[in-house]
């Protein structure tokens, strides 16, 4: 149950690719902050505009507050440095990390993406409403929730959206591996999973009986435009299903720090290989991956906790610096609301936000805001950006490089991620 402190067990090794593991797992004014990077002047929701949807679990309340309009990059200009902080299986439990990081986001002007697991809005006694592909009805590898956990999670979801952050999906039961895991699912089974993830968000009042709770202030059919699969498995068939169901992007892949491209009609924005200071390999840009490479367990040697958190923070800062001073590729960071190894990775994330989000030309945004910007660009400009390799600044400077887009530029090398083949990824 989500209300318990430790709700997600460590997954099994699933993919021979790259280094490490890929982990899975409110308080404050609902009006949120003044606006994320460039959002000043963005349209807030008109007052007193509420149109209930379905059973009243969700509602249209007007345009999202603090969401900026995205403009095309002008010729001769350096692109912004985007940084995306995202959270898998987002829910508010006894650790209160959802509410904590909402406050951190306001402090450092950060919009984030919260990938909600739909079963976190489904009470245990209604578990049978969930029909997971290739598993018995009512089963879930991350459990379900209790009424207090649902109410607390709803409070943070409302506030997060009003802060200008995004509510994406981590789907539902978090099944991994060869025995019916998401990597084994067909397109049709993924369609069922996505429909159910939407349904649990759109019908929590009926399912949980919480009729006196206020609605979520968004239409989830329009809000849910992307996600990350459990264990980073099943991306191919999931994307085939999702492209017909309102998705605009996916972040289930493994890649390098280069500019993203579209796959099957969706923006493919993967987790990235980043440095591990003091080690001779790179790992995925996620707290779980650092934890697995350092201790292999969520409860490692306490004397090493501070060092491990510093190592993650410094690795992310090195990744940021090589993009910021190089190709300006978006830095994609994944996290979980967990206190692994004494909470050292939560400290690392907070310190990373503090260090990077106030720098010149840096925009700490949600995936939605990033894909809005990508969709606004001249395709020829994006071709040129994608021609830059990891950490590669344009020869002759940005003013010359983006002055006249040239689609004939060579494609970026794609061998770095493959060079790590044979090492385990866990999620």
Automatic annotation (TrEMBL):
Stretch list, region Disordered: 28-47, 55-75, 396-427
Record's compositionally biased regions (Basic and acidic residues): 66-75
Signal peptide from the UniProt entry: 1-18
InterPro entries cross-referenced by the UniProt entry: CE4 (IPR052740), Glyco_hydro/deAcase_b/a-brl (IPR011330)
Spans traversing the lipid bilayer: none
Keywords for the protein's UniProt record, in alphabetical order: Signal
Compositionally biased region (Low complexity): 28-45, 402-427
PANTHER family, per the entry: CHITIN DEACETYLASE-LIKE 4, PTHR45985
Protein name: Secreted protein
């Amino acid at each position: 149950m989500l209300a318990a402190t430790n709700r997600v067990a460590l997954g099994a090794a699933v993919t021979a690719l790259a280094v490490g593991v890929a982990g899975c797992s409110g308080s404050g004014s609902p009006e949120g902050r003044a606006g994320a990077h460039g959002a000043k002047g963005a349209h807030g929701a008109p007052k007193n505009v509420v149109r209930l949807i379905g059973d009243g679990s969700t509602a249209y309340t007007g345009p999202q507050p603090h969401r900026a309009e995205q403009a095309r990059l002008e010729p001769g200009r350096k692109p912004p440095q985007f940084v995306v902080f995202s959270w898998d299986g987002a829910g508010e439990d006894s650790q209160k990390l959802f509410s904590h990081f909402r406050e951190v986001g306001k402090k450092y002007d950060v919009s984030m993406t919260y990938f909600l697991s739909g079963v976190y809005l489904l009470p245990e006694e209604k578990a049978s409403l969930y029909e997971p592909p290739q598993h018995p009805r009512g089963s879930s590898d991350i459990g379900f929730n209790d009424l207090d956990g649902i109410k607390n999670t709803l409070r943070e979801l409302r506030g997060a959206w009003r802060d200008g952050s995004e509510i994406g999906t981590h789907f539902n039961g978090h099944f991994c591996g060869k025995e019916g895991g998401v990597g084994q699912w067909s397109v049709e089974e993924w369609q069922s999973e996505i429909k159910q993830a939407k349904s649990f968000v759109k019908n929590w009042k009926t399912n949980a009986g919480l009729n006196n709770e206020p609605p979520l202030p968004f239409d989830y059919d329009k809000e849910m435009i992307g996600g990350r699969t459990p264990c980073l498995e099943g991306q191919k068939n999931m994307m085939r299903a999702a492209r017909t169901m309102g998705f605009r992007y996916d972040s289930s892949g493994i890649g390098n720090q280069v500019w993203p491209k579209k796959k099957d009609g969706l923006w493919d924005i993967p987790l990235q290989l980043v440095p591990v200071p003091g080690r001779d390999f790179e790992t995925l840009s996620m707290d779980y991956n650092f934890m697995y490479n350092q201790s292999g367990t969520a409860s490692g040697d306490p004397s090493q906790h501070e060092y491990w958190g510093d190592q993650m923070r410094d690795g992310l800062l090195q990744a940021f610096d090589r993009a910021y001073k190089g190709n300006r590729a978006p830095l994609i960071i994944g996290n979980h609301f967990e206190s692994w190894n004494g909470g050292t990775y939560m400290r690392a994330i907070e310190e990373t936000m503090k260090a990077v989000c106030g720098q010149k030309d840096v925009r700490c945004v949600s995936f939605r805001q990033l894909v809005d910007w990508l969709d606004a660009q001249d395709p020829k400009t994006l071709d040129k950006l994608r021609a830059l390799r990891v950490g590669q600044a344009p020869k002759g400077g940005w003013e010359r490089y983006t002055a006249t887009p040239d689609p004939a530029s060579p494609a970026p090398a794609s061998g770095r991620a493959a060079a790590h083949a044979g090492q385990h990824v866990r999620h």
